[in-house]
Design goal:
The protein is built from 19 helices and no strands. The chain is mainly alpha-helical. Helix 2 runs parallel beside helix 7 and helix 2 packs antiparallel against helix 9. The N terminus is likely disordered.
Length: 428
């Protein structure tokens, strides 16, 4: 049961939901700090993960890797992130969202630093796998943290805007890529990008000092300590939940499969097949990243305005059209530059509704478990896409291989959404 103070706050927030006042202004100080911490965590998550896509072409040249083997380095991170993400969700239901969030950020930051010292393919392979264990948990735990703090009327906006931090981290990676490869030799430049990845570990100090556990978790934890039963980790596969869990995992597979097939190989595509320089590649990616940030923001607001399902339908259709046009039409470099905006807008905007939607699909006592499993199971299957794109590119070319797998993924999103319920503004 809610505390009287918290209950009064919820009533107040709901009453003001339609007044036009800022949802952020309605958060209490603890809620604002949690939002900032989750936003920064997602940005650093993106930086540490997306840096690899920028150095992929360099590793192919310097170490003589074929594309299939290079794609495997992305795949192994995503596969292990699916395992680490589910483990983090189970731990977050038992020990707290904030504690586990700190651990995941520290883990993937240290692993990112270590990748900068790797001497061969095998070492990077192992370190990318270890990086994935932490990377997988940060998103789900952060999304649950925000979803449980913000009022139902604003949950889509808040969780969606947290995810816009991904575009910020991606943009920082692009900027540092341009600087590093302009002033350092290629053999050192790629390593320096991973060394910078240790900086996000400092975020743990802020979280430890300023971010409390959500009231929803505190109440559930108190009930457990007073004898309430703890649900099994397999509760998400119970008769009442298994259909929802399977469909939610399918939804997450499509959303992430489309994005990873495109984003992992796009810098290499621009450099290898379009023959763009480092600075030109960064310019093209910058347009895509700006588009992705706008997509996150628009998707966040539409998720609360239209509802979760309609939002997914719109962005999956836009993503399908954008990626096919970008990669299959005989475009000039100038046309590709401007078409990058809708490509980034649609492929990232679709993510905005995911966190709030998964939070609303499940009860509090196994919410982090369910959210981590469905999102990270999807990530694990989507992890196959970069490798499959690399292998198929030998016969069909990189552009067509990306378009095929991304297009199929967004078709899966449309199928899953048609079979799942609407949860807009559902109370937790």
């Amino acid at each position: 049961m809610m505390t009287p103070t918290r209950n009064a706050q919820e009533v107040s927030l709901r009453a003001r939901a339609g007044s036009g006042s800022s949802w952020y202004a309605e958060l209490d100080p603890a809620g604002k700090r949690a939002f900032k911490a989750s936003f920064a965590g997602w940005a650093t998550d993106a930086f540490d993960f997306m840096v690899f896509s920028f150095v992929l072409a360099s590793l192919i040249d310097l170490w003589g890797l074929d594309r299939g083997k290079a794609g495997l380095l992305s795949t192994v991170t995503l596969i292990f992130s699916s395992v680490g993400g589910w483990i983090a969700g189970i731990l977050a239901d038992r020990y707290g969202r904030v504690k586990v969030l700190q651990g995941t950020i520290l883990w993937f930051s240290v692993c990112t630093l270590a990748i900068g010292f790797a001497q061969n393919f095998e070492q990077i392979f192992v370190l990318r796998a270890l990086q994935g264990l932490g990377f997988g948990g940060e998103w789900a735990v952060g999304a649950v943290l925000i979803g449980e703090i913000v009022a139902p009327a604003h949950r889509g906006k808040a969780v969606g805007l947290v995810q816009s931090g991904w575009a910020i981290g991606w943009g920082c990676a692009a900027i540092l890529y341009s600087i590093a490869f302009s002033v350092l030799p290629e053999s050192l430049a790629w390593r320096s990008l991973f060394w910078v990845g240790i900086v996000p570990a400092l975020l743990v100090l802020y979280i430890r000092k300023h971010v409390p556990e959500p009231d929803v978790f505190v109440q559930a934890d108190a009930a457990r300590k007073h004898g309430a039963s703890q649900p099994s980790v397999w509760a998400i596969f119970s008769r009442s939940q298994v259909r929802r869990t399977v469909l939610a995992a399918l939804l997450c597979t499509g959303i992430q499969g489309g994005f990873y097939a495109m984003s992992t190989w796009l810098p290499a595509f621009l450099k290898i097949e379009r023959h763009l320089s480092v600075l030109n590649t960064s310019a093209y990616l910058f347009v895509i990243i700006v588009g992705s940030f706008c997509g996150y923001v628009v998707g966040a607001y539409l998720s609360d305005f239209w509802g979760r399902r309609r939002n997914f339908m719109l962005f999956s259709a836009l993503s399908l059209v954008s990626v096919c046009l970008y990669l299959t039409l005989p475009l000039s470099n100038a046309q590709m530059l401007w078409l990058g905006f809708p490509l980034g807008f649609s492929s990232c905007g679709i993510f905005s509704g995911v966190g709030a939607y998964l939070t609303e699909l499940y009860p509090s006592n196994f919410r982090a478990n369910a959210q981590s499993f469905t999102y990270n199971f999807g990530r694990g299957i989507a992890a196959l896409f970069p490798s499959l794109v690399g292998m198929l590119s030998h016969s069909l070319g990189l552009a067509l291989a990306i378009a095929i797998f991304s297009g199929a993924a967004y078709g899966v999103v449309l199928l899953a959404v048609l079979l799942l319920p609407e949860t807009k503004a559902r109370s937790l």
